[in-house]
Write a structure and sequence with these properties.
homodimer; alpha/beta; six-stranded parallel beta sheet
Chain lengths: ~325, ~325
């Protein structure tokens, strides 16, 4: 028996903001006559994340990234039919694999999902998955957040930022968030952020003079660019920490910006790059508390769901317009 | 009895490279009829350092900075006549003080020098003073240098860099240094640097491809700018550490540069700002091993001596041409 899989491939390298012409949808026949050890995974949800813009990929490659799937057919006792899995299979609807636990960028290519109870498994792409884990390890390990810290989160209504802010509140920090619309800011207030501001309406200098007159202990940065330059130059405490987690304002540029060295020196700052690659073997350690907090109602989330594999590029491109509140997932 | 003191004052704020017109030499009468507790300090050497370019100073202020002096007249039992002192009195020849241990930027305004034996006390402006201490604490505490690290030092023939490289060798690191002339590079080889290159003749990418094909563990950065951008983007190991100690290439600019966020994120770098302000209460802890290493011949130094308080601005300005090898001091 054979089925048709759909997959998106890269047709030309990105230049500036990704466009629909960078992608092409292809079909391929997938045989379900599995050899010993093989499994066939049917995609339920695929993820679009900003980091995909800057990850090396060759023309002709299938678009990569996290995917939630279900084992449709199995010839492998470790992954019986019906198993829900988090994989790195990307933007494709059906995949046959002979070695599900082969190493991939963020650890094994395929992981079994922990028990989500009544919660939707798509959370494993969001607040209990890579973005949530990025927030968890980035804030607590790279950022060494502790009770009493004044924490600033940029792109706070995004998939990572919204979790950062909530964990910081759980840990007893004062949390300031920036976002780009009134609706996002309203949501952040609901999430318990102490202060929020719409950076399109209130300049970062003005907002932080008001909300953090004594300075920022820990800046969890998802945006970089001019916003972060102002934060570093004018608002960090001496020996402040900056978790450099994302630079979405720079992903589509030729990587020029303003120098931050004088601020780093003058205030003895520590800038710490954050990538989940470093924590790839610690997924379960982070997923347990995240899942627990979601079940207890302490960690809230929003998903923006786009329906259909055909719309994956569109969902991806929308990230760079700031269109999303919370996590964007593509439902297959 | 009264004597004439000479002092340099700032006549207008710096814009771009400092010029002679930013400074004016003034004279003032200093009475040596001291009140109880007062001391009169006669300058022996005054220091010029790059950081003075970016420190806030008002028009009319006396140029600040480290000074080695001798107590000429004393009415204070703690500082008897003849005591050699390291002070923050700057570019002036004679100073009367009522409270020598008042707090200044880098700790007490006046410190007694430890016993230098036969060594010249001017070393307390260089490899056993603030630049040496910056190297010591910056490399070992902020940079956490350890045996086996591949360490890159920019401006390696400067007052800080030349000490960084030698301490790194003492600690068992492999050390690469960059400098701007053949003469400087030759000196670095004499000091025991494993690899040196003249960045004006060999591009940093080319040099580091040859000398550090496996990447840099620890970059002790004194220059910032394009040089450092290339190091961060192309030559750091994952989880590499960067001690941001100086940014001499940016001090005379309007502080624009290139963005380093993508490298910080992609390689999970840690950038750590370094300023001696943080270590102001730990001078003696650092001066002891530095002095010991000098006495044992393990820590070598060069001084560029300019004679006469009248030439202090000229000596300062020469820093930004890269004219110095080792430490520049002005002998009074």
């Amino acid at each position: 028996m054979s089925l048709t899989a759909k997959k998106w491939i890269l047709t030309k390298q990105f230049a500036g903001v990704p466009k629909l012409e960078n992608f092409k949808l292809e079909e391929e026949a997938v045989s379900l006559a599995l050899k010993p050890g093989e499994i066939a995974i049917e995609a339920l949800y695929v993820s679009v994340d900003p980091y995909m813009r800057i990850f090396p990929l060759n023309v002709g490659d299938t678009l990569f990234g996290d995917q939630i799937g279900r084992v449709k057919v199995s010839n492998n006792a470790d992954f019986p039919e019906g198993t829900l899995v988090l994989s790195f299979l990307g933007w494709r609807t059906l995949t046959v694999l002979s070695n599900p636990e082969a190493p991939a960028v963020f650890g094994p290519l395929v992981r079994k999902l922990p028990d989500f109870g009544d919660l939707p498994p798509s959370l494993a792409l969001g607040c209990v998955g890579m973005p949530g884990l990025t927030a968890y390890f980035g804030l607590l390990e790279r950022g060494e957040a502790k009770a009493g810290d004044v924490v600033l989160v940029s792109a706070a209504a995004g998939a990572v930022g919204s979790v950062v802010g909530q964990i910081a509140k759980i840990k007893g920090c004062t949390v300031i968030g920036s976002a780009g619309s009134k609706e996002k800011c309203d949501w952040l207030k609901e999430l318990g952020f102490d202060h929020v501001f719409n950076y399109k309406e209130t300049a970062v200098d003005e907002a932080l003079k008001q909300f953090a007159p004594g300075g920022i202990d820990l800046y969890f940065d998802n945006v970089a660019g001019d916003f972060s330059f102002a934060v570093l130059q004018n608002h960090m405490k001496v020996r402040g920490r900056v978790v450099c987690c994302g630079a979405i304002s720079e992903y589509n540029t030729d990587n020029t910006g303003r120098s931050i060295y004088l601020s780093v020196i003058g205030k003895m700052l520590e800038l710490r790059g954050m990538s989940m690659v470093e924590y790839k073997n610690r997924y379960s350690e982070g997923m347990s508390p995240l899942l627990q907090w979601v079940k207890e109602g302490k960690l809230k989330h929003r998903e923006t769901i786009t329906e259909g594999i055909e719309r994956a590029p569109e969902a991806f491109i929308s990230l760079f317009r700031g269109a999303n509140t919370g996590k964007i997932v593509v439902k297959i």
